[in-house]
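Re: the multi-chain job from yesterday

Posting the exact lines I submitted so nobody has to dig through the queue logs.
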Amino acid sequence: EVHLVESGGGLVQPGGSLRLSCAASGFSFSAYWMNWVRQAPGKGLEWVASIKQGGSERYYVDSVKGRFTISRDNAKNSLYLQMNSLRAEDTAVYYCAGSGYDTGLFDYWGQGTLVTVSS
Amino acid sequence: DIQMTQSPSTLSASVGDRVTITCRASQSISSWLAWYQQKPGKGPNLLIYKASSLERGVPSRFSGSGSGTEFTLTISSLQPDDFATYYCQQYNSYPYTFGQGTKLEIK
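And the result, structure tokens for all chains:
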């Protein structure tokens, strides 16, 4: 059974940093593109970032470019999101998602971790 | 960026009803469209990919159609478990974008 478990969320002040982690099991992690998708409270879904199987390609939504970094450790079956210079508008539940069939198609999802940016 | 527009935003229906949700893309995305179901407090679940392919394990009452800029998700006979929020998503090009969601409520 596939499991994606996010961790690392919490309350952080504007301008602060946070590192999210996602532990994967039940599928061939190293064969999948991996992604972060977020959802602000009461709002819809927003794709944040994607990383290729070996980490050689990374893509970001414009609003986080230069502030967020997606990375992975295939030996640990883990995905990460380093978030710097956080803003109030980054407040959201952050989901880890895997793409198996096609790049950009989110086959597997975690339960999410809440990031709150507030003073 | 490709804008995805869903309609309606809210849909009230009864168990056994046939319902259709529409998704429009601001430019052609061929068939690179997915539909997801999300229940409160949970991550989304993939229902349909490549516009009309049913994800394994998803009941056959769900179906998708369309190509280019116009797409639909149809539930042939609503079951109690289907009351949730549905999102379309294009994966034709970056940035990947979602529709604003359609909340399916019990009438």
